[in-house]
Amino acid sequence: MNWRKITFVVVALIVLLGGSALLSKLFISMKPEAGTRPEVDVKRYVAAQPVAYSDITSEVTAQGRVISGNEVVLIAEAAGKIEAGQVSLKKGASFKKGQHLATIYKDEVELELKSKKSIFLNSLTNILPDLRIDFPDSYEVFLKFFNEIDLNEELPELPEYENEKLKIFLASQGILNDYYSIRQNEKRLERHSMYAPFDGTFTEVNYEVGAYVNTNGQIAKMIRTDLLELEVPVENEFSKWIKLGDRVKVIKSGQSELYGTVVRKAAFVDQNSQSRSVFVKVDSKAGAEMLTGEYLSVEFPGYPIKNAMEIPRSAVFNTNTVFTVADGYLQKRQINIIKVNTSTLIFDGLEEGTYLVTEALINVKERTPVEILGAQASGNTQNEKQQDEKGS
């Protein structure tokens, strides 16, 4: 009896579950299918203009680095201890032309020079009586020369002598040898004192006051600050348009415009950048400060480009590809880029009248339906309407 009840219950549950499944499928099959929305092409509006070529005058703009008109290494021509001059021998110290920069210890050289001058004066004293007797015409001249000699000053010029006997006499008494030996020592003494050859500043100092330096030792490096130039690397293709003597505009942030003149063009091309250096001398102007090493923008005179068009750089992608509009759809086209400016570029290579998109498009592809903004689109839009009417 118990087995019958259990069997009956199990069979009833199976029938109940099966019936429920069948009813569920029946109800699902009776549910109406959801309608699919037809795909609709959504048009985008783009800025475009027809290609029209003309002659364009385009400036060449490039950045240049300020360099000194002179860069000099201060080399010791004598050995000894460095003594202070009128200028601090420190990196960054400035000086004026003619200022005493430093001295290499020279007391011994000075004393030796004075000793030679004393001996020379003695030699002149000994020959003056003979000159008075044998060469009376030259006596007064050599007496004046003798009186002008100062132990603390350079020797005056030796009197001229045309008499052959007088020349032999001076040589035999050692006067000529002593004179030129002293002049040699005077030149050697001059090498102990160093003076500024121009207005400038020290960019590097290897030996300071108190240090010992050998002959030919590099004491410091200095640059000229009252004569500055701009070295501007220009693409070799465009450098041919720049001529010596061209007036250029120099742009410095925070200051009024400066002007300069092209003074040199390098006769070679840098192998790494394929650019050619153009050197510009900047006109001096009150209140305009330029420092060696800083970068400034230079605008060279424009040169003509025939049968070309200028568009924003943002309209070009993949180096030389643009979008055009044909029959209401986007189409990719390649252009020939002639010149790239800061925010624009100049090109050719498209048929005139082709509508070229002049803005950057994001997340679009070819055959995207578009409509051109602005009055220039009226003719294009009218053609589309006529095609739609024919199709209907």
Compose a concise summary of this entry:
The chain is of the alpha+beta class. 29% of the residues lie in helices and 33% in strands. Strands 3-12-15-14-13-16 form a six-stranded antiparallel β-barrel.
The shape, in one word, is: elongated
Give the N-to-C terminal Cα separation: 82 Å
Q: Identify low-pLDDT runs.
A: 375-392
Placed side by side, the strands forming the largest sheet appear as 3-12-15-14-13-16
Q: What's the Cα radius of gyration?
A: 46 Å
* Number of helices, where a helix is a run of at least 4 consecutive DSSP H or I residues: 7
Number of strands: 22
Description:
The strands form 5 sheets. The protein has a 6-stranded antiparallel barrel with strand order 3-12-15-14-13-16. Strands 2-21-17-18 form a 4-stranded antiparallel β-sheet, with no helix packed on it. Helix 2 packs antiparallel against helix 5. Strand 13 and strand 14 (258-265) form a beta hairpin. It is an alpha+beta fold and 392 residues long. The chain contains 7 helices and 22 strands. The protein is elongated. The two termini are 82 Å apart. The longest helix has 29 residues, at 2-30.
